[in-house]
Design a protein that fits this description.
five-stranded mixed beta barrel; 486 residues; 3 domains; Spore Coat Polysaccharide Biosynthesis Protein SpsA, Chain A; Jelly Rolls; alpha+beta
């Protein structure tokens, strides 16, 4: 008997709010790991969107307000209808799933039996290359989920991994959907070895399939404060019209949502339930949760080294080098992780891969902005790269997309010199509006209202030289902005 249901009954929900601190220095708060082109020059989010679109071309996403333009870039030309719930604050997965369920309830009002709608919650930062196998395994859980069970997907373990959580299932249960006995957090090595030998444990993927009403009832019973806060904030949410026909922004009320308790769905709900089933996924999977996990996605050379970019390993073994920007050479070392970026380099032992978040915590305590921004920073209008800086000056390379504009703005503490190196710039400076061609320049005095616009169909590239007493990014007073930024 076919136990699956039509794919249209399953709504994929991508949870896109992670910070990816264990992949610093490439992953930073303004550009976390789900947006990094880590595999085949594609981001993990892009791969997740392609994977779930086989189930349904209409997708619901929950992400951070500050990442909305990064998400929009990933969605361009994909042809998916996406509702994007923008969290004003990161409050972990219980709140994110609650917001998604409440929004989907509002959208499905008036349908014949909306309580039977299934939601598939997927993290945005997993690597699962076999999309067809993923689709087939997801649909194996549809019958159990329709019957009111919470279905979670476990990964058949290949080694005693201490960085993953585990699911213990009842080995006597029958069928693809197995009864879950308990969840186990990241175990010690001895326990992980025991789990591997027992044949009744799976790695916890964090992927769930369940009816919307089952999720809402579980939140109301086991985390009523989270449920009520999500309900109140969604009742006063603002909804923007569809962007370019395929993307719509939903913004819960920020003041109400700020009071929501932050907790994972595992602790808030799952550990209290007794109606959970699991289905084993026997295929390639990685949560890409550490640099060791990233390294494992590349084939090793005979010495066990994995090298991406311009790396050279001499008398070196079991070492991962990620060097996309310049030559990185190792000599006489072993068991290292080396990740090079233009403004920071990480060198760590393989055993310390799970502890990289401690580096981020240490840098945050020093108020080092390298936890937040890269040297090259993406913006909705293009990007800028801080190529030099010193006392009272900073030099940026700026690229503005065709037809895009920076905000109409002014600065209280700095003046700017602009030099066009490619394309055409339309400059607003005070009451004047004029154009600059390649090799032409202009000067923006301190306090003058100004704007930069690219009127052409090719990318505008320019050099900006800032000078003044304070050069921080918060010295921007926006008067008008096409992207809704304050």
């Amino acid at each position: 008997m076919n136990t699956s249901i039509a794919p249209s009954r399953i709504t994929p929900v991508i949870l896109c709010g992670g910070s990816g601190t264990r992949l610093w220095p490439m992953s930073r708060k303004s550009y976390p790991k789900q947006f990094l082109p880590l595999i085949n020059k594609q981001s993990l989010l892009y791969q997740t969107l392609k994977r779930v679109s086989a189930l349904n071309s209409s997708v619901l996403m929950v992400g951070a307000e500050e990442h909305r333009f990064l998400i929009s870039d990933e969605l361009q030309a994909m042809g998916l209808d996406v509702d994007l719930v923008l969290e004003p604050f990161a409050k972990n997965t219980a709140a994110a799933m609650g917001l998604a369920a409440l929004f989907q309830l509002k959208q499905s009002t008036g349908q014949n039996d909306p309580s039977k709608d299934l939601l598939l919650f997927c993290p945005a930062d997993h690597h699962i290359p076999d999309h067809q196998r993923f689709k087939a395994v997801v649909e194996q859980g549809a019958k159990a989920a329709s019957d009111g069970h919470v279905v979670t997907y476990g990964i058949l373990p290949t080694h005693p991994h201490t960085g993953y959580g585990y699911i213990q299932f009842d080995a006597q249960s029958v069928g693809p959907a197995l009864d879950v006995l308990r969840f186990v957090e990241k175990p010690a090595l001895e326990d992980a070895q025991s789990f591997l030998l027992s044949n009744d444990h799976l790695w916890n993927s964090g992927i769930f399939l369940l009816r919307r009403d089952v999720l809402m009832d579980a939140l109301l019973k086991h985390a009523p404060d989270i449920y009520e806060t999500c309900l109140a904030s969604m009742s006063k949410a603002s909804i923007e019209p569809w962007q370019e026909g395929h993307l719509r922004f939903i913004r819960p009320n920020a003041e109400i949502f700020s009071h929501c308790r932050s907790q994972s769905i595992d602790y808030a709900v799952m550990e209290h339930l007794n109606n959970i089933k699991t289905i084993a996924f026997n295929g390639q999977w990685s949560d890409v949760g550490s640099w060791s996990s990233v390294a494992e996605l590349s084939p090793p050379d005979p010495e066990g080294n994995r090298i991406l970019g311009d790396g050279l390993a001499l008398n070196t073994s079991n070492t991962y080098i990620n060097a996309p920007h310049r030559k990185v050479v190792t000599l006489g070392v072993k068991n290292l992780l080396i990740i090079d970026t233009p403004d920071a380099v990480l060198i760590a032992s393989q055993e310390s891969a799970q502890s990289v978040k401690e580096v981020v915590e240490a840098l945050e305590s020093q108020q080092d902005e390298k936890t937040l921004l890269h040297r090259k920073v993406k913006r909705p209008w293009g990007w800028y790269d801080r190529i030099d800086q010193g006392e009272r000056f900073q030099v940026k390379r700026i690229a503005v997309n065709p037809g895009a504009s920076l905000s109409l703005q002014k600065h209280q503490h700095r003046a700017e010199h602009w030099i066009v190196v490619k394309g055409t710039a339309e400059v607003t400076c005070g009451e004047q509006i004029y154009r600059l061609q390649e090799n032409q320049s202009t000067y923006i005095p301190v306090g003058e209202v100004h704007r930069l616009h690219n009127p052409e169909q090719t990318v505008l590239e320019m050099i900006e030289v800032q000078s003044g007493s304070y050069l921080g990014e918060d010295d921007i007073v926006r008067i008008n902005d096409s992207y809704g930024r304050d």
